[in-house]
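User: I'm preparing a small set of examples for a lab meeting where we compare how different chains pack in three dimensions. I only have the primary sequence for this one, and I'd like the structure in token form so I can line it up with the others. Please keep the answer compact; I'll paste it straight into my notes.
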Amino acid sequence: MTTQLQVPSPPPVGAVQEPTSRLARLATWQKLLMYGLAFLALLSLVRVVSGAAQLTSSGTAEAALIAAIPIGLAGLAGLWSERAGVVNIGLEGMMILGTFGAGWIGWQYGPWPGVVAAIGFGVFGGLIHAVATVTFGVDHIVSGVAINILGLGITQYLAGTFLTGTPGGGSKQSPPIANIGSVSVPGLPNALESIEDRQWFFVSDLAGIVRGLTTSVNYLTIIAIVLVIATFFVLWRTPFGLRLRSCGEAPYAAESLGVNVYLYKYVAVLISGALSGLGGAYLAIVAASNYRDGQTAGRGFIGLAAMIFGNWRPGGLAAGAGLFGYTDGLQLRDNTAVHALLLLAALLCLVGLVVLLIRRRWFGALLTAIFGAGALIWYLGTDTLPPQLTSATPYVTTLVVLALASQRLRMPKADGLIYRRGAGH
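Assistant: Understood. Below is the structure token output for the 425-residue chain.
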């Protein structure tokens, strides 16, 4: 018996084979790691040129992490809801409910019961949004605005009722909440401290950031990071996640295959409320150690922006939250270091200009060159930025990044559409 070898037939004459780039073959985590290291190299260069040591210090990294977590949790909450087809701009109101729940219960019974209460208050807000949008078909935007107004009104009323006269508390804040606890990687922070202090290019910057991210990390931060990873595996690696995402892409097709679309939408919005409440708990217990009126400061909306920047995916969402957290933490640590971000913006524009010229996008290249030149001139002509602009840096960064990323976004196809069982037949 002879064995015949099958040789693949050659391509047709004149056919052009598209070469697959090495970048396209990389996994998502490999791309994120590569981009992250390249960004760190630019940041290190800016630190060396400007002398702004706080750009990559361990203190800035620690502050950035604390600022990024509530944003990331709010964005994760929006991701769960919108992947099921329900727009949730009520994240801010649900976070507000969470801050009060954490403050009211946390100061009496401890931080962990406060976390549970915050999640419960967030689920309550999610339930109202689900009933309005899924059951009664109310416009999702209208319902979200109502949740924001309702959340603020309820917490102010409850705070005036239950917190007035409490020791160290009042109608605007709760008494202090006990520390929830933290953990450090054994031996690593001390080993990295000497490397950070030497101010070497890239190596010291990397050591400072890793040291800040592994020193006194509170337990809620660890839970939040685990939730981001778990969300990816649940939504993209399980049948449950596939069915839930199908409700946001093609609900009537999912219905024809036996998926209970109403049930999945309810579950998604309730999980969204729980994550928003957890973000509120983080603000009250970790960031401030008590409930304060207005302490969310629009972080629910910024979380929504981080979700859009991340293209409705957990990895990109985390990157967007980290970017906001970094600029927020930097301006809290050192106002003068924010000035050095103008040089970073000029360098990023230079990189973008090269990419656009290679792709022959002349108009985009022209705009990038103008913006980069303006940032460089601003940096060279000034020593500091106005305080008003410094405090607004995180919000300006969010808007700029969203504008630049808007061309590659793809939201779930049925996101925000009213679903009615049987209407698709």
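A couple of notes for your slides: Residues 54-333 form a domain with the ABC transporter involved in vitamin B12 uptake, BtuC fold (CATH 1.10.3470). The chain has a mean pLDDT of 89.

User: Perfect, thanks.
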